[in-house]
């Protein structure tokens, strides 16, 4: 080799080099040892720690929402179903130019202002890797249009969900209620774990009352995800337990008939099977379509419903309070008999008005000239006010209240739903508490004909009617007939009927009941009865009682109440009421009808009841024939 | 150690000048590399095929260099060094950029990093320069050698490629160390280097500073810079003693581990083959380095000794820095795991270095036979 130092000592150099190589080899071994120790620390000593981290990295537990239970009527007509609905969802992190993508999507899918508004709101609130619904309830056409163009839209997907659907729309709305998206308030109260995959919750009605059973129990999937959060496979799954299917006591056809009979008028029909307490019909008009609440009602639609002067969202059957008017008379009569204040055949002279002893105030009868000599049955049949003014005064308010309480006035019936009103059953004590005033005898007088403080819901009236029908055997009214067994396809198909609690009225004398019921029959079937127009062609015996509830008092201090209906504002007209049960000797159905501002009970409310009774007792054909 | 046993016992010149012991280690490492790459690259046989092509090209270079006597390499050394420097300057002006650094030269057919060439040319140059100097070399020569080292290191640092700059720098030092620098001088220069660290810190680019900060506290930025190291520690640690099995590493198969076929391939290996696998791999790496050092210690002339020693040590620095970085002991400086990480340039460079080692080994055999 060239250019060597002249004095270069090769042996010395070699020794030098060997030493250095050994030193370097030592360094190499030391480094390898350090690395090995480090790996031992990571892979052996800390293995458990890192194994846990690795497990958490790749595993995700995803809730699987249960299928909501279906709701049927008593004849297995579907009232609430689940149908697949499609949502288009956007994962913001995967979208480059959001505005451009949205405008392109707008050409395939009908996007309205409120969709975009909600979406942009969500966009700010949620994290960029969470998928956000842009529009729910896509039409089949929209789904198809998007699917063809899917490749153009990374980060956008269509997902299928089960959505609540009410095939009969508004027919059962006030009984069934509806589901809607879970709001923040509800989120606070419910079991977050159980609802972790659920979007909808029962908001009102049966849907709310039986929420727990209808909802079912959430299931879980342990899924493996990659670093981007994409699902790769299911490692383990606990299937959800679907919600229970329920059969309601309602008769959907009867609902339709009642709805049709009420027509455009505001009002309510409640029908009960007296023996069981099963609610056969439960209608409040005007009604609304519960389907619009399911996917989130727009604020405009909601305003339309809530600002409607006819208040379609108001559940008149459950929460509407009306003076019972003359429909109270059979019960006041029973109180009179029970306390021995009068006997059935005792008669009295009923003139055009009644006056309290020592008072000039005239309590007028609805019949200008008075009814003449009447006994109790006649007073009921012709709805004689003066007879009941007298009887009420002789009974005194507290004894009236005691008996009416047994017919469930003044307390909730306990129907399996939410939002029931309690009504007012006045008594001396009640007035002291509510108004801080003593009770005046005049207030007792008008309570005798169902006016004054006394108020009740159509449901309470129907229940009281059912108590009359069974001669005092009160039952707990209910919407739920039974929970349907999950395997009903293979089993006997029918679960056990639920039995209602019984509660009877403390009026022991069967004869009393019979005479009152007879009088009610007469009011329908006798020519001088107030509801004869309804009863004269009936193919079965009906026991009924009309009622008229004053909305606006025209009679000022003894002035005679008389007006031509057409001349006053519809809103100020009287409410028409009618209660009935049939067949009178063996009642299968008890009904209460209220027609708001309808005028007289016999003319406005009784025909509605007739249509429902006809349908229930005679069948569809006859009802249609009668209606035409 | 067995590899340090006297080589004079092998009288015959090995076939094609290939040292079977060194070649065996290299093939084991490459085989393990291909297996783990298949797993790391989502079972993509294409990646494995590509890497095999890299290996074949590298092996041809190795074969070629093994046939060239070290005398010849000695003569070429200064010219190769100067050529390498020229290429490094070119990179700064016409280089191809990627990942915020300008490292590649595009020659139409292939794109390569001239800094990789320096990993061989620099030790050749320093060995050439110091081979005829007295032992221990005087300060004057050492300063000259340091300047020769500083030029390419500075050019590489400008690209900027901190990892390669440090690697090339350390190669130069290895040659000086092996050439017999006195302990006194070594202490002085070591002190000088330590003293210059703070000044050097301010020359580091933001991302390079960040890497070092993240190393010290990776949890400070779990989704950004610390993500790599956190995920690679999880991969290694969850592998445990026996590993999750080939193709069963969830960290790598499910994309949690970034850069898992290149710089972080060791984490895939550790996750799937466990502590037993990683220790075995360390053993093979150690074996290969020891064999290289053994060849160096038996080499006949100074130039060969210095070159063989420094090339062996460069291989050693490669795997120690890579494994140190993947296991969280060293900053993430972007050094591949030799012979296993996916990539053509480093594979060819490393095999070229082994080619030179084999040439030196067979030259020495010629002398002894």
Explained architecture:
The complex is a heterodimer of chains A (628) and B (369). Chain A is an alpha+beta fold and 628 residues long. Chain A has three domains: 55-77 and 168-242, Penicillin-binding protein 2a (Domain 2) (Alpha-Beta Complex); 78-160, Ribosomal Protein L30, Chain: A, CATH 3.30.1390; 252-300 and 317-627, DD-peptidase/beta-lactamase superfamily (Beta-lactamase), CATH 3.40.710.10. In chain A, strands 2, 3, 4, 5, 10 and 18 form a six-stranded mixed sheet that branches. Chain A has a five-stranded antiparallel sheet with strand order 12-11-22-21-20, sandwiched between helices. In chain A, strand 8 and strand 9 (231-238) form a beta hairpin. In chain A, helix 16 (385-395) crosses helix 19 (441-447) and helix 23 (601-618) runs antiparallel to helix 24. Chain A starts with 9 loop residues before the first helix and ends with a helix. In chain B, 53% of the residues are buried. Chain B is 70% helix and 3% strand. Chain B has a three-stranded antiparallel sheet with strand order 1-2-3. At the A-B interface, helix 1 and helix 2 of A face helix 6, helix 9, helix 11 and helix 12 of B.
- Strand/helix succession of chain B: HHHEEEHHHHHHHHHH
Give me the number of helical elements of chain B: 13
Shape of chain A: elongated
Unreliable runs of chain A, pLDDT <50, ≥5 residues? Answer: 1-6, 490-494, 553-563, 622-628
Total separate domains of chain A = 3
Radius of gyration of chain B: 20 Å
The CA-CA distance between the termini of chain B, in Å, is 23 Å
Structural class of chain A: alpha+beta
What is the mean predicted local confidence, pLDDT of chain A? 84
Oligomer: heterodimer
Tell me the name of the CATH homologous superfamily of the largest domain in chain A. DD-peptidase/beta-lactamase superfamily
């Amino acid at each position: 080799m060239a250019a060597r130092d002249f004095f270069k000592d090769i042996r010395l150099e070699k020794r030098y080099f060997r030493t250095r190589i050994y030193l370097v080899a030592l360094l190499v071994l030391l480094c390898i040892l350090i690395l090995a120790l480090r790996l031992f620390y990571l892979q052996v000593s800390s293995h458990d720690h890192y194994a846990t981290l690795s497990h958490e990295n790749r595993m995700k537990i995803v809730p699987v929402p249960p299928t909501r239970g279906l709701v049927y009527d008593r004849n297995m007509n579907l009232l609430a179903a689940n149908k697949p609905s499609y949502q288009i969802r956007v994962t913001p992190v995967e979208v480059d130019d959001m505005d451009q993508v949205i405008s392109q999507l707008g050409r395939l899918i009908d996007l309205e202002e409120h969709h975009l508004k909600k979406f942009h709101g969500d966009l700010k609130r949620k994290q960029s890797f969470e998928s956000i619904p842009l529009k729910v309830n896509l039409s089949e056409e929209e789904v198809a249009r998007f699917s063809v163009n899917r490749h153009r839209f990374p980060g956008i997907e269509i997902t299928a969900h089960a959505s609540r659907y009410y095939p009969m729309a508004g027919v059962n709305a006030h009984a069934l209620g509806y589901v809607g998206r879970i709001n923040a308030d509800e989120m606070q109260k419910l079991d977050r774990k159980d609802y972790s995959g659920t979007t909808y919750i029962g908001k009102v009605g049966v849907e709310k009352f039986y929420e727990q059973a209808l909802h079912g129990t959430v299931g879980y999937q342990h899924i493996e995800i990659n670093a981007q959060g994409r699902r790769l496979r299911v490692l383990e799954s606990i299937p959800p337990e679907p919600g229970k299917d329920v059969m309601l006591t309602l008769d959907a056809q009867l609902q339709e008939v009642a709805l049709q009979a009420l027509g455009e008028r505001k009002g309510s029909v409640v029908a009960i099977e007296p023996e069981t307490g099963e609610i056969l019909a439960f209608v409040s008009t005007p009604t609304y379509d519960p389907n619009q609440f399911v996917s989130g009602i727009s604020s405009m639609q909601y305003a339309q419903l809530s600002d409607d002067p006819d208040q379609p969202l108001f559940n008149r059957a459950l929460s509407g309070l009306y003076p019972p008017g003359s429909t109270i008379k059979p019960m006041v009569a029973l109180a009179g008999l029970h306390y021995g204040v009068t006997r059935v055949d005792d008669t009295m002279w009923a003139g055009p008005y009644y006056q309290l002893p020592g008072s000039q105030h005239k309590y007028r009868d609805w019949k200008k000239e008075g009814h003449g000599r009447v006994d109790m049955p006649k007073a009921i049949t012709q709805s004689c006010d003066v007879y009941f003014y007298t009887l009420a005064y002789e009974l005194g308010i507290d004894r009236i209240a005691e008996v009416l309480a047994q017919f469930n006035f003044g307390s909730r019936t306990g129907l399996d739903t939410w939002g029931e009103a309690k009504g007012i059953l006045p008594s001396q004590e009640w007035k002291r508490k509510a108004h801080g005033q003593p009770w005046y005898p005049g207030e007792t007088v008008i309570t005798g004909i169902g006016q004054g403080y006394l108020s009740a819901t159509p449901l309470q009236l129907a229940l009281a009617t059912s108590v009359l029908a069974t001669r005092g055997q009160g039952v707990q009214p209910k919407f739920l007939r039974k929970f349907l067994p999950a395997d009903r396809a293979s089993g006997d198909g029918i679960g056990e009927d639920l039995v209602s609690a019984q509660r009877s009225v403390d009026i022991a004398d069967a004869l009393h009941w019979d005479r009152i019921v007879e009088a009610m029959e007469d009011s329908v079937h006798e020519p001088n009865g107030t509801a004869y127009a309804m009863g004269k062609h009936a193919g079965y015996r009906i026991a009924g009682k009309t009622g008229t509830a004053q909305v606006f008092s025209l009679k000022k201090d003894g002035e005679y109440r008389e007006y031509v209906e057409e001349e006053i504002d519809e809103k100020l007209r009287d409410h028409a009421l009618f209660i009935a049960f049939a067949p009178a000797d063996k009642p299968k159905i008890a009904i209460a009808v209220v027609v708001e501002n309808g005028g007289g009970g016999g003319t406005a409310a009784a025909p509605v009841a007739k249509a429902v009774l006809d349908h229930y007792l005679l069948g569809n054909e006859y009802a249609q024939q009668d209606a035409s | 150690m067995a590899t340090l046993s006297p080589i004079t016992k092998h009288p015959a010149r090995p076939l094609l000048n290939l040292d079977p012991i060194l070649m065996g280690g290299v093939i084991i490492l490459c085989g393990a590399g291909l297996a783990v790459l298949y797993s790391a690259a989502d079972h993509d046989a294409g990646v494995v095929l590509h890497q095999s092509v890299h290996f074949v090209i590298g092996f041809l270079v190795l074969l070629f260099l093994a046939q060239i006597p070290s005398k010849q390499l000695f003569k070429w050394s200064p010219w190769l060094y100067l050529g390498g420097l020229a290429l490094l300057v070119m990179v700064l002006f016409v280089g191809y950029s990627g990942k915020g650094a300008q490292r590649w030269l595009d020659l139409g057919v292939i794109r390569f990093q001239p800094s990789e060439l320096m990993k061989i040319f620099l030790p050749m140059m320093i060995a050439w320069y110091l081979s005829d100097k007295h032992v221990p070399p005087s300060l004057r020569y050492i300063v000259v050698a340091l300047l020769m080292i500083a030029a390419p290191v500075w050019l590489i640092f400008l690209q900027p490629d901190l990892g390669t700059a440090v690697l090339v720098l350390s190669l130069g030092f290895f040659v000086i160390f092996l050439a017999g620098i006195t302990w006194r001088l070594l202490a002085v220069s070591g002190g000088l280097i330590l003293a210059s660290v703070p000044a050097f810190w301010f020359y580091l680019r933001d991302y390079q500073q960040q890497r070092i900060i993240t190393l010290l506290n990776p949890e400070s930025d779990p989704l950004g810079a610390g993500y790599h190291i956190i995920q690679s520690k999880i991969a290694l640690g969850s592998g445990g003693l026996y590993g999750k099995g080939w193709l069963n590493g969830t960290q790598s198969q499910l994309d949690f581990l970034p850069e898992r076929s290149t710089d972080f391939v060791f984490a895939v290996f550790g996750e799937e083959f466990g502590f037993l696998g990683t220790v075995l791999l360390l053993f093979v790496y150690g074996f290969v380095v020891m064999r290289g050092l053994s060849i160096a210690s038996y080499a006949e002339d100074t130039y060969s000794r210095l070159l063989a020693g420094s090339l062996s040590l460069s291989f050693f620095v490669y795997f120690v820095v890579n494994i140190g970085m993947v296991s969280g002991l060293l900053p993430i400086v972007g050094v591949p795991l030799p012979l296993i990480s996916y990539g053509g340039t480093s594979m060819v460079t490393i095999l070229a270095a082994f080619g030179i080692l084999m040439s030196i080994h067979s030259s020495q055999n010629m002398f002894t036979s």
